[in-house]
Batch of 3 targets.
Target 1
Amino acid sequence: MGRKWNNIKEKKASKDANTSRVYAKFGREIFVAAKQGEPDPESNQALKVVLERAKTYSVPKNIIDRAIEKAKGGSDETFDELRYEGFGPNGSMVIVDTLTNNVNRTAADVRAAFNKNGGNMGVNGSVAYMFDATAVIGLEGRTADDALEILMEADVDVRDILEEEDAVIVYAEPEQFHAVQSAFKEAGVEEFTVAELTMLAQNEVELAEDANVQFEKLIDALEELDDVRQVYHNVDLGE
């Protein structure tokens, strides 16, 4: 798979260490998920996914509780989930998932980020067909063989299991997200280093150094937008 999930997590944690932006984004995402169904993760699978992911980013409990209470309170605030697709330097591919209460603002901001950083927006479907929706679960303290045995005993099928540095990363179909986590929890796993529903590129590309620098600026510009939830791409950014 080649995604180097531990390195990606470390980069995100470093970038977000001195800002509350990531917490604000999670607060919005939790509110929307809780409002769309029951504000209980045991009966609301969408909310459960968001909360599992929030744990891996160490989102404070008060942020989570506040968002759920806001949903319980019947707030009439509404958000649209929108996806934008585009191209970075040298034809690299980017998908941007957003959660917004102002579609015009978000579209303009995303387009500006592309245009100012060597990219351009594409039409719907111009990029997404080169990506696969994937559940990614990471854990420490186990080997790939351990993980495989646990999943086989639980009769859970996955796409792939890899060892990356000191962690095991499991790639599965999105609908297997909870089954994979449940199998590991039953086996005594209490924390996950990664818990994501993501879009993985079918093929990664490498860019020349100057293009790579520009591409990273594009990704940073997109991720810094308040309305952006997730950014996916097909570039191997290395270590």
Target 2
Amino acid sequence: MNNNSDVLIIGGGVIGCATAYYLAKQGVNVTVLEKKQIGEGGSSRNGGGVRQSGRDPRELPLAMAGIKNLWPTLSEELGMDVEYYKKGNLRLAKTAGHIKILEGLTERAVAKGLDVKMIDAQEVKAICPYLSDEVIGASWCDTDGHANPMLTTLAYYKNARRLGVRFITGENVVEIKKIRGKARQVITEQNIYEAEQIILAAGYESRAIANTVGIDIPMNRVLLEALATEPQGKMFEQMLGTAEADFYGHQSTHGSFVFGGSSGFDAYTSNFDTPINNSQTAACICRGIIGYFPILADAKIVRTWAGWIDECADHVPVISFVEEVPGLILACAFTGHGFGISPMVGTLLAEMIVDGKPSLDLYELRYDRFKTKL
């Protein structure tokens, strides 16, 4: 087996698959290594939000560019319906404190050019009449939406393979090795791979892998949990979130509601390596949903699933060349925000490889922003 390629991507999630696709479109020889299965991590365990509102201003330009230029035609380009709906996003508030949080998020987003506004309870009910009377207001961005994360990841994967990308699963990466000062080899438990450029996009596990070349990204492993209901009659098309991000979700094409929330388990309190569901947190998420959507009180839960996310210390991703390690590009620490910007991130990473620089300014997402300024 030929273990040499132009670019080697560590991580077979939606970021890795999208990047592989955009590189292969330009004739680049690409290999993707994945420890488990394609889309095994957060790429298949998220609420499907394709949103601009509620984002940190540093990552907002990526979301805005993706929604403007990539998401509207993605199903057509990939030849698979990724169930993308551009029907808006309501971030809900029940208290004056929630309103204050949303006003701050809205003000910062408007300063970046996003069309988002605060609306009152009456306006919220006009958009989604099924919401609880406890909702006193929301932020509203009508250009936000949602898509199916599993289908999106699969579509990128299938098209990348069609263009010649080699995906190898079951490969646990243990080290990146420099040759003559440049990142050149990726060592797994079973093999050695070589490439001119290496992209590290392995979620939380990127931290330990980057450590092997002396780079550390301050992020924690946090467990999130999601659930799906039995199909319901059509109620709303918007993406929903809350001021405190304690739950989020949408109604899917076939009628099921997909909701997620925080489990409360993180790298400091969990004693297991494999993410597992927890009856207490699933029940907590359900109580939160009923508080916002009382009409769903009797809806049956048909499945739940859990997965780790890579929560960065400042809650925005790292997308960056590494000055100390030429040949290495980091794409990790997405903090649960990665799916919605994945087409744009894949595009930018491909540009970094092919053109030597991205078309958007990624300075605020550089890897060394955490270093002490002298």
Target 3
Amino acid sequence: MNQLHYPLVFEPILQDRIWGGTKLRDDLGKNIPTPTTGESWELSAVKGNVSVVENGAFAGKPLTELLEQYPNDILGTAVHARFGKQFPLLFKFLDAREDLSIQVHPNDELAKQRHNSFGKTEMWYVMQADPGSRIIVGFNHKSSAQEYLEKLESKQLIDILNQVPAKKGDVYFLETGTIHAIGAGIVIAEIQQTSDITYRIYDWDRVDANGNGRQLHVQEALDAMNYNTTDTQKEYTKEVNKSNSMVDCPYFTTNFLPLDGKAEVAKNGDSFTVYICTEGEYTIDLQGSTYTFKKGDTVLIPAAVTAFTLTGNATLLEIYIS
């Protein structure tokens, strides 16, 4: 067994955002640099924002360097065969003190053509929601490019969008092309394809300290958008100490694992596994060693680690590629 066979934790990449706040510090223990910190990139191979290992024998090593040296051990044989030495997913926590912009993401084909990038299929798990907060997701009726542009021009876009009250534990699966926004007062765990391509459509007429608005991508969004209504919210079971399916798509599988005691995990080496702890504390027992994690921790289990035990009282999201 080489040195890589342990749970990898990465230094958070903290991002200041015009809509950000302090909940990443107050709720998740992140050492935020500003009172408008909107995102903690927990595990990223996005160019310019590559995660660095925080713990163990490989502390200080960038994720991309480890992927060059140990692609099968980290990614897994099937994931390596499909994606090469690229890490295909991006994991974040988001704190929306204010509404995020209304936006849409392109699919793989469009993103490759325009940006030489993956598209951005994503999912949200609501970790905390203030009373009265809401998610904006999809159109509330079958729309069209013409109606979308007319409503945008008259600042009535929100009238044709689907607004859903948000509560802790809600899950939304957003296929590419789905118009959306995270509403104010919500903390989200986000799992997405490795992509930083966002078409921002409307930003509530916000301006920065210099009076400048953020760039919009109204025209780019036109042929990226799905104008049909979409069924984005996912129901899921919550059987204790079991992996309960939330989202299973070509890009990732996410399970809900409520831990109260012990869960034995066996893997086949095809894919890495990531655990996001949204509540509580737990340990990973592996080859005679015990590693302790808590709410706000994101852990990468290399694919070469095929058997381990989860113990504790915690709520976990379990993610891999199937």
